[in-house]
C-alpha cells in the first residue's frame, strides 16, 4: 500500500475507531489519526490492518459538517480522491477525501456477502457466541476480579471490588500480616488494567520482595511485569530508542532502594506518565514534620517518604500496603493517609480528635447490627442518643422511623460506615474479622547464660550478645552459646519438618550456617541482605522444594518481611527482635493464608539477660506469641525506655504488669472505637458474601470449556484430556497463523479453580486469561464469520423463501480510557427480514433456526445468492432503514441509562464528600467529565452491521 498524507483508512481490526486519516509516514511506518476517538496509532506499513476507504459512484457520502451527497464522479489529485455529487436539496457539491466525516457506518459484511464471500456456519456461530460472552463480561462489575489463580475470599473480594472500580483509587491496604494485601493490590491492579481504567502502573517494593511480586503477578494474574534495576535501565538507554527507560514498559516493578540511590532514576520516574503506583511495605516511609535545616541529614525512611510523596503528587492512583501501619507511630500513620489525600489529612490533631468520636458511632452500629439480626429488644432511643451530636439530623430521623421500616437498618449501617472513620481510604482486615486461621503453640526454653557473655556487660544487655563479643576468634561463641546446641538439637529432632530459623543479624546467620556445615555436616539454606536477589530466591526455592529441598532456612531479619513460607509449620527464633512489629512480621511468615497446621513457635532465651526480659515482656506483657496484638506498638512506645535498661526481677514483673494493663485498656478502647469501625468498614460481611456468590456465578467455567473447545476445533489447536479436570493443548501443522498464548511445546490447562490452585504448573484458563481475551478479540475483529448461508429444512415454512438475518452492533466510539462500556454496554440489534420487507425475528427465533438449519455446499450457496441478489439488496436496505428508525429511541434509552448511573454515582460521592471529606474533588470531576463525554459519544454513535446470514427454506 502506498500511503499519502490525507488519505482515509479503516482499521479492519477495530471498526469502532471510525475513519482514520494518514498524518505521517516514513519508509517503514505510517501514522494514522482516528479523530472520532481522539487517538493516533502507528503501524508497520507491510502489516498494517488498514483498508483504504473508497466509496463508489452512487454511494451516499457524509461531510464532516453533517450534510450528505450522492456521488456522481470521483477524481484523483496527487493520490487523494475528490467526490463530486448532488446533495439532498439537489445542489451540486464536492467532498475532498480529507473532509469525509470521521464517524462512518461501514457495511463490511454486506460488501462481502454481495461479493459472494460466504463463511462457514461454524465461524458464524462462533462469532455470535463470542459477542454474547464479550458483552456479558464488559457489563460485569466483577470483570478483572474473578479470573485469577486465587481462592475467592470474601474479605479480599470486598476490598478489591470497592476499590478496583474507582477512578484513580488512592487507598492504604493495611490488613494484618499474611491476610493477602499483595493479592488485594494485584486484584485491584488487574481490574484497573483489564477495564482500561489504568494503562501504566509502577510497583515499588523492598528489593527482597521483587522476585516474589514478579512471580505472584505472573503466576496468579498473568500480568507480565518488567523488573527494573540499574543495569536494565542502562541497557534500555543504550539499545533502544527510549531516552527515559521507564517509558519502555507499561507495567514496571522495581526496588525502592534503587530509586533512593539514584536521583536520575527518580527524575525519570517522575517524568514518565503513570496511572497507578503501588508501594509495598509502606511502614518504611517516615514523615519528617518540619523544616529541614541546611546540611541536616535525614534517615532513609524519611527520604523514602519524601520520594513517594513526590510521586504521589503526580500519579493519580496510589495503593500503599502495610501490615503495621502504626509501626513508626501514629503521626507516620497519619502521614501515609496524607500521601493519599493531602487535602483531607492536613491536620494531625483534628485527625486524632475525629477518631475520638468513632466510639459512639461504632456502639450505635453494634446495636443496629443486633436489630438487623432480629433483636427487637434493642431500644431505638439508645441508638439515637449514641449518635446525637455525631451525625446529621436526617440520619437521626431515619433511626426514629426504623420501627416502621426495619429493613432500612442495613442501609443505615452502610450510611454510617460510609460517613465515619477512614473507611474509604483505609482498609484493615484482622484475623479476628476474617477467622479460620491456624492456632499457634509456643515452646520456650530457658538456657543458662554462658561465661563468655557474663563477663561482657554489653553482650548481657543485648538481644544479640554474639555480635557484641570482643574476642580474637569470631566463631568462639558458637561453641559456648547454648542456643547453638539447642538449635542443632531442634534441627535434628525436627528433621522431617521444614523449619524456618530467624536471627536478627546476617553475621549470625552466616556463622550458624558455617557451624551447621563444618561441625554437623548439615547443609542449610541461608537468606540475608548481603545476598543478591537471585541468590535469595534460589535459597527460598531450595527451602520450598518438598522433595529435594533443605529442611532448614536460616534468615536474617530482612528475610522475615513479606515472604511466603506458610508451607512450613515450625518457626525457630534464634533471638528476639527489638520491636513487637518485627516479632509479628516474623510469625507472619508462617501465619498466612494457606497455613494448614498449628504453627509451632520455638524460642530459646538466656536466663538473666536482656533476652529473658524481652521474652517475658512479649509473652506475658503482650501475649504476642499466641495472637497478634494491635496495641503492641503503643505499649512499646510507652515503655520503650524501661525496656532498654537492665531491670531487676521485681521491676520486670512490674513492667510486665503495667504493660499488660495498658495493652488490655488499649485493646478495649480500640475495639470500642476506631478498630471496630475499621473492621466493619473493611469488609461488610453480607455484601462480601454476596460478592462471592456473584463471582462464582460469573466465572462459568463449564461454558468457557465448551466455548474453548469450539475455538480449538476451528483454529486447529489439538486438545486432549490430561487427567480429570485438566487437558493438554498443542499447536498442530494445520493451524493457520497465530493462536494467542499457545506455547510451542504445548501446555496443560484447567478451567477449574481448585485444580489450578492445587497445581501451580497448570495454566488456569478463565474468561480473564489473556488467551481467552485475545481469542475473543481475534474472533470479533476478523471478518471471518460475519457472513453465512444456511437452509431451513422441515421447518413447516413453504419452500423457496428467502430470509436475511442482519445483526447490528451499536457501541459508542470514544476515547477508550473512558471505559464507556460500563455505562453503555454495546447493543446487539437483530432483524430477520422476510421477502416482504418485514422483520419476523420474533417469530423465526434463533432457537427455531438452530433446530431446522442445515448447511449446503458452497457452490450451491453462491448460485442461490447470485440468483437472489436483488432481493438481498432490497432486504438489506430495508434492515438499514429499520435500524435507523429505531436508533433515536435506542440512543435516548442509552443516554438516560448513562445519565442515571453516572449521576447516581456523582450524587453518592458528593454526599460522602460533604459528610466526611473522604472523596477527592478530582473523583467527582472525572465522573462529571465522563458524563459529558458519554453524552457526546452517544450522539455520534452509528450502528455497524456486524454480521449477515442468508436463510433459504426447503
Ligand atoms: N485469595 C487467595 N488465594 C490463594 N492464596 C492466597 C490468597 N490470598 C493470599 N494468598 C496467599 O497467602 C499468602 C499471604 O498473602 P499476601 O502475601 O498477599 O499477604 P500480605 O498481607 O501481603 O502479607 P505481608 O503482610 O507479609 O506482606 C501468600 O502466599 C498468598 O499467595
TrEMBL record:
EC number, UniProt record: 3.6.4.-
InterPro entries in alphabetical order: DEXDc_RapA, Helicase_ATP-bd, Helicase_C-like, Helicase_RapA, P-loop_NTPase, RapA_C, SNF2-like_sf, SNF2/RAD54-like_C
Matches recorded under SMART domains: DEXDc, HELICc
Broad enzyme group: hydrolase
Keyword S-adenosyl-L-methionine included in the entry's annotation: no
Motif (DEAH box): 280-283
TM segment ranges: none
Tagged with keyword Manganese: no
BP term (GO), one: regulation of DNA-templated transcription
A GO term for molecular function: ATP binding
Domain Helicase ATP-binding intervals: 162-343
Entry keywords, A to Z: Activator, ATP-binding, DNA-binding, Helicase, Hydrolase, Nucleotide-binding, Transcription, Transcription regulation
Top-rank taxon: Bacteria
Chain positions recorded as ATP binding sites: 175-182
Annotated ranges, domain Helicase C-terminal: 483-636
Family listed: Belongs to the SNF2/RAD54 helicase family. RapA subfamily.
Described function: Transcription regulator that activates transcription by stimulating RNA polymerase (RNAP) recycling in case of stress conditions such as supercoiled DNA or high salt concentrations. Probably acts by releasing the RNAP, when it is trapped or immobilized on tightly supercoiled DNA. Does not activate transcription on linear DNA. Probably not involved in DNA repair.
Subunit architecture: Interacts with the RNAP. Has a higher affinity for the core RNAP than for the holoenzyme. Its ATPase activity is stimulated by binding to RNAP.
Protein name: RNA polymerase-associated protein RapA
Gene coding for it: rapA
Amino acid at each position: 500500500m502506498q500511503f499519502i498524507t490525507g488519505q482515509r483508512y479503516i482499521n479492519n481490526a477495530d471498526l469502532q475507531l471510525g475513519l482514520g486519516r494518514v498524518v505521517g509516514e516514513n519508509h517503514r511506518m505510517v501514522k494514522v489519526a482516528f479523530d472520532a476517538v481522539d487517538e493516533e496509532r502507528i503501524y508497520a506499513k507491510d502489516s498494517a490492518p488498514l483498508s483504504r476507504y473508497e466509496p463508489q459512484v452512487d454511494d451516499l457520502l457524509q461531510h464532516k459538517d453533517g450534510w450528505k451527497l450522492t456521488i456522481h464522479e470521483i477524481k484523483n489529485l496527487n493520490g487523494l480522491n475528490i467526490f463530486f455529487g448532488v446533495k439532498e436539496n439537489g445542489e451540486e457539491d464536492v467532498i475532498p477525501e480529507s473532509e469525509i466525516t470521521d464517524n462512518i457506518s461501514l457495511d463490511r459484511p454486506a460488501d462481502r456477502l454481495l461479493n459472494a464471500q460466504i463463511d462457514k456456519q461454524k465461524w458464524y456461530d462462533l462469532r455470535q457466541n463470542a459477542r454474547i460472552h464479550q458483552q456479558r463480561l464488559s457489563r460485569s462489575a466483577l470483570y478483572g476480579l474473578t479470573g485469577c489463580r486465587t481462592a475467592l475470599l470474601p474479605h479480599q473480594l470486598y476490598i478489591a471490588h470497592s476499590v478496583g472500580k474507582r477512578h484513580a483509587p488512592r487507598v492504604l491496604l493495611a490488613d494484618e500480616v499474611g491476610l493477602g494485601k499483595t493479592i488485594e493490590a494485584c486484584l485491584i491492579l488487574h481490574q484497573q488494567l483489564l477495564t482500561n481504567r489504568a494503562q501504566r502502573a509502577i510497583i515499588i517494593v523492598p528489593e527482597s520482595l521483587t522476585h516474589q511480586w514478579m512471580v505472584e503477578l505472573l503466576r496468579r494474574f498473568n500480568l507480565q511485569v518488567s523488573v527494573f534495576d540499574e543495569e536494565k535501565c542502562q541497557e534500555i538507554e543504550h539499545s533502544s530508542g527510549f531516552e527515559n527507560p521507564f517509558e519502555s514498559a507499561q507495567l514496571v516493578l522495581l526496588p525502592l532502594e534503587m530509586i533512593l540511590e539514584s536521583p536520575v532514576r527518580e527524575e525519570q520516574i517522575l517524568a514518565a506518565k503513570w496511572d497507578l503506583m503501588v508501594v509495598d511495605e509502606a511502614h518504611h516511609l517516615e514523615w519528617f514534620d518540619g523544616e529541614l535545616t541546611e546540611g541536616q541529614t535525614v534517615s532513609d525512611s524519611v527520604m523514602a517518604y519524601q520520594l513517594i510523596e513526590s510521586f504521589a503528587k503526580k500519579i493519580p492512583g496510589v495503593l500503599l500496603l502495610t501490615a503495621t501501619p502504626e509501626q513508626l507511630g501514629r503521626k507516620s500513620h497519619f502521614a501515609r493517609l496524607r500521601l493519599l489525600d493531602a487535602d483531607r489529612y492536613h491536620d494531625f490533631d483534628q485527625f486524632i480528635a475525629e477518631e475520638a468520636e468513632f466510639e459512639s458511632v461504632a456502639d450505635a452500629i453494634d446495636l443496629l447490627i443486633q436489630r438487623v439480626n432480629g433483636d427487637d429488644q434493642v431500644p431505638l432511643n439508645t441508638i439515637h442518643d449514641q449518635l446525637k451530636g455525631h451525625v446529621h439530623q436526617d440520619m437521626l430521623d431515619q433511626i426514629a422511623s426504623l420501627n416502621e421500616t426495619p429493613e432500612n437498618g442495613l442501609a443505615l449501617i452502610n450510611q454510617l460506615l460510609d460517613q465515619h472513620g477512614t473507611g474509604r481510604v483505609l482498609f484493615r482486615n484482622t484475623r479476628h474479622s476474617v477467622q479460620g486461621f491456624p492456632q499457634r503453640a509456643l515452646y520456650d526454653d530457658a538456657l543458662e547464660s554462658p561465661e563468655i557473655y557474663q563477663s561482657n556487660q554489653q553482650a548481657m544487655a543485648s538481644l544479640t550478645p554474639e555480635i557484641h563479643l570482643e574476642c580474637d576468634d569470631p566463631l568462639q561463641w558458637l561453641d559456648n552459646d547454648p542456643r547453638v546446641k539447642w538449635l542443632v538439637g531442634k534441627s535434628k529432632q525436627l528433621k522431617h519438618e521444614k523449619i524456618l530459623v530467624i536471627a536478627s543479624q546476617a553475621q549470625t546467620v552466616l556463622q550458624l550456617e558455617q557451624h551447621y556445615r563444618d561441625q554437623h555436616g548439615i547443609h542449610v539454606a541461608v537468606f540475608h541482605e548481603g545476598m543478591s536477589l537471585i541468590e535469595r530466591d534460589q535459597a527460598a526455592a531450595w527451602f520450598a522444594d518438598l522433595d529435594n529441598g533443605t529442611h532448614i532456612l536460616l534468615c536474617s531479619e530482612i528475610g522475615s518481611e513479606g515472604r511466603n513460607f506458610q508451607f512450613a509449620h515450625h518457626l525457630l527464633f534464634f533471638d528476639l527482635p527489638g520491636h513487637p512489629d518485627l516479632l509479628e512480621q516474623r510469625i507472619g511468615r508462617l501465619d498466612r493464608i494457606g497455613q494448614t497446621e498449628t504453627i509451632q513457635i520455638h524460642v530459646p532465651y538466656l536466663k538473666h539477660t536482656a533476652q529473658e526480659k524481652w521474652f517475658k515482656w512479649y509473652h506475658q506483657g503482650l501475649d504476642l506469641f499466641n495472637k497478634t496484638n494491635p496495641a503492641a506498638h503503643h505499649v512499646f512506645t510507652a515503655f520503650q525506655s524501661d525496656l532498654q535498661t537492665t531491670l531487676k526481677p521485681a521491676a520486670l514483673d512490674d513492667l510486665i504488669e503495667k504493660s499488660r494493663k495498658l495493652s488490655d485498656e488499649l485493646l478495649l478502647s480500640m475495639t470500642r472505637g476506631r478498630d471496630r469501625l475499621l473492621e466493619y468498614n473493611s469488609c461488610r460481611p453480607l455484601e462480601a458474601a454476596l460478592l462471592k456468590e456473584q463471582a462464582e456465578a460469573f466465572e462459568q467455567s463449564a461454558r468457557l470449556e465448551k466455548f474453548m473447545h469450539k475455538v480449538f476445533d476451528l483454529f486447529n489447536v489439538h486438545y486432549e484430556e490430561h487427567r480429570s479436570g485438566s487437558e493438554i493443548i498443542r499447536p498442530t501443522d494445520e493451524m493457520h497463523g497465530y493462536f494467542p498464548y499457545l506455547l510451542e511445546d504445548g501446555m496443560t490447562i484447567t478451567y477449574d479453580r481448585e485444580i489450578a490452585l492445587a497445581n501451580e504448573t497448570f495454566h488456569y484458563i478463565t474468561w480473564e486469561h489473556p488467551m481467552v481475551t485475545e481469542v475473543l478479540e481475534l474472533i470479533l475483529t476478523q471478518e471471518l464469520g460475519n457472513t453465512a448461508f444456511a437452509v431451513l429444512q422441515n421447518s413447516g415454512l413453504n419452500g423457496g423463501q428467502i430470509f436475511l438475518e442482519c445483526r447490528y452492533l451499536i457501541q459508542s466510539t470514544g476515547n477508550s480510557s473512558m471505559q464507556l462500556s460500563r455505562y453503555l454496554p454495546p447493543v446487539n440489534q437483530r432483524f430477520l427480514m422476510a421477502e416482504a420487507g418485514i422483520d419476523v425475528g420474533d417469530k423465526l427465533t434463533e432457537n427455531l433456526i438452530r433446530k431446522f438449519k442445515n448447511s449446503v455446499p458452497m457452490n450451491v450457496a453462491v448460485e442461490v445468492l447470485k440468483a437472489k441478489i436483488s432481493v438481498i439488496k432490497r432486504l438489506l436496505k430495508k434492515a438499514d432503514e429499520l435500524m435507523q428508525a429505531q436508533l433515536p429511541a435506542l440512543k435516548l434509552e442509552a443516554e438516560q441509562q448513562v445519565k442515571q448511573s453516572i449521576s447516581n454515582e456523582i450524587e453518592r460521592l458528593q454526599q460522602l464528600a460533604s459528610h466526611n471529606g473522604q472523596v477527592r474533588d478530582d473523583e467527582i470531576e472525572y465522573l462529571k467529565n465522563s458524563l459529558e463525554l458519554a453524552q457526546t459519544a452517544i450522539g455520534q454513535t452509528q450502528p455497524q452491521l456486524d454480521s449477515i446470514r442468508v436463510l433459504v427454506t426447503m
